[in-house]
Amino acid sequence: MCSLLCQCFYRPEVLFKNPQIHVKNPHLDTMEEDILYHFNLGTKTHNLPEMFGDVKFVCVGGSANRMKSFAQFIHQELALPGNMDNVTDICEGTDRYSMYKVGPVLSISHGMGVPSISIMLHELIKLLHHARCIDFILFRIGTSGGVGLEAGTVVVTDKAVDCFFRAQFEQVVLGKVVTRSTELDVGVSKELLQCSSELDDVPTVIGNTMCTSDFYEGQGRLDGALCSFSTEDKREYLRKAYNTGVRNIEMESTVFAAMCRACAIKAAVVCVTLLNRFDGDQISTPHDVLVEYQQRPQVLVAHFIKKRLGLVV
Amino acid sequence: MCSLLCQCFYRPEVLFKNPQIHVKNPHLDTMEEDILYHFNLGTKTHNLPEMFGDVKFVCVGGSANRMKSFAQFIHQELALPGNMDNVTDICEGTDRYSMYKVGPVLSISHGMGVPSISIMLHELIKLLHHARCIDFILFRIGTSGGVGLEAGTVVVTDKAVDCFFRAQFEQVVLGKVVTRSTELDVGVSKELLQCSSELDDVPTVIGNTMCTSDFYEGQGRLDGALCSFSTEDKREYLRKAYNTGVRNIEMESTVFAAMCRACAIKAAVVCVTLLNRFDGDQISTPHDVLVEYQQRPQVLVAHFIKKRLGLVV
């Protein structure tokens, strides 16, 4: 392995100086073809620089339908030519992920949980590398459970923490645990908070986001198929989380932050809370209210993009 | 919490005596309504016993398209009335999972990775509980990487093991690690192997299945966005896995086995291998060959179901 890459692996700041380097894998240079299996794309079958070379903003989220709506929304917001209803799924040969490109914006679904988003991120980072993209920003726009916040609040993640409240991600590599930092880009987070202050109806805070590998027991829900703890045990855990700065809980942020940092990609996590977990576990809010909540991270990130493109001041 | 449930939590054999008990959560009895959020179903909005009361076989797999195809295939195999193309997605109000019911068979997608399948399993087990289903069998039919097996081989899982080759699943509950057994039903596995011997073109073995939380670094692939190990390191890890009995690698089996066992549900994991990992990492097999491979677990489980229903001898 090249010694520069070895040094860079634990020192992303070395890579930040060269915005063109994103992958951290010397083996890729020796491969004749790279098949991005879960995207149904490849370096021999597709002209990736032509398809994706102008991408400047990548937005990812769990639900395929939501990421299609986001692509249509961005189409409208950027006042691009053509009919926004005609956005087509670039990954249509597979149902693992959906991907839409609208001008300089890529919108991709990643399913639920760390493993699902990590497969997508490996292939996305390789795709952006093959396409020779530079200076792009990656956003996760998602939903979450709030901790001590009113439903509908948008949380821009300060630190992504694990279920022990540690700002780290443990990746098992060949049976050995490797611990990676989950630090996100402070500048982008602050810019997002500034953007929120310029919008109506997008109440936004910066706080820590806890990432769990389970929606029920892992997040202290009392309504799963399995539950061995009491209401008081649950409240105590949520209180502890709140006291360490956790404001929302979701299932992808740690690996998202860790992989982006390892590959020197500027990134932010922007999730709306669908409920306040101190008040309950089930999501019983009416469908139309939930739909409006889910649009808030989209509205915020769209405003950020428009400002960066000079479309609004 | 009731003392019987406390006892049962670590002794599933207590529950096996009463096939009607599946959930292990005393809080559920106190809930007026149970919203199965990711299925878009609920106890007040849907008559779950009427919709699902006759289910005897539940088949789950990662891809929504594949689970729709499986439902259509089962419709044909069981010679049910009506047009097999008309199977409808019961979860059509959400894109998190897809669900099809064909006679006594339920076919559901679960996405990729432990967190994604665990959300589905929590809601599925509650659904079957609310529907008062008894004596059903749960199958995971999926795809995997083979370890020392020719591509296209079907592996019926003996033990589901983690990336340290341990037959256990670690679940974090309120910040504490709980270790659960991943033992599967030996009788069902043997019956599946017997079924395979009655079929042409479904080469089948029983072996251990390793479940990882990452497709690239976690499975020793050299072609991810991040890779810090050599080809020899990879081969050594795969060799170790093989020597402990691992014959394939996928991303859901441990939590599937652990949750089914905790809830006293008879279950099996049946995955086809898409490649032999000793030969490579990328899935470059032609699409039509992959499609045929992916049908093999379906054909095997369909034969099992038909035998159980007395449709074949």
From TrEMBL, chains A, B:
Q: Name one Pfam family in it.
A: PNP_UDP_1
What residues does substrate bind to? Q219, R221
Q: For this protein, what reaction is catalysed?
A: uridine + phosphate = alpha-D-ribose 1-phosphate + uracil
Check the record and name the InterPro entries matching this protein: Nucleoside_phosphorylase_CS, Nucleoside_phosphorylase_d, Nucleoside_phosphorylase_sf, Uridine_phosphorylase_euk
Q: Which GO terms describe its cellular component?
A: cytosol
Where, by residue number, does the polypeptide cross the bilayer? none
**E.C. no:** 2.4.2.3
The answer to whether the entry has keyword Transferase is yes
The residue ranges of the Nucleoside phosphorylase domain are: 56-306
Q: Which GO terms describe its molecular function?
A: uridine phosphorylase activity
Give the pathway annotation.
Pyrimidine metabolism; UMP biosynthesis via salvage pathway; uracil from uridine (phosphorylase route): step 1/1
UniProt binding sites for phosphate: R96, R140, I141, G142, T143
Q: Which UniProt keywords apply?
A: Glycosyltransferase, Transferase
Question: Is Membrane a UniProt keyword of this protein?
Answer: no
What the record says about family reads: Belongs to the PNP/UDP phosphorylase family.
Chain's role? Catalyzes the reversible phosphorylytic cleavage of uridine to uracil and ribose-1-phosphate which can then be utilized as carbon and energy sources or in the rescue of pyrimidine bases for nucleotide synthesis. Shows broad substrate specificity and can also accept deoxyuridine and other analogous compounds.
Which protein are we looking at?
Answer: Uridine phosphorylase
User: The organism's lineage?
Assistant: Eukaryota, Metazoa, Chordata, Craniata, Vertebrata
Its gene?
A: UPP2
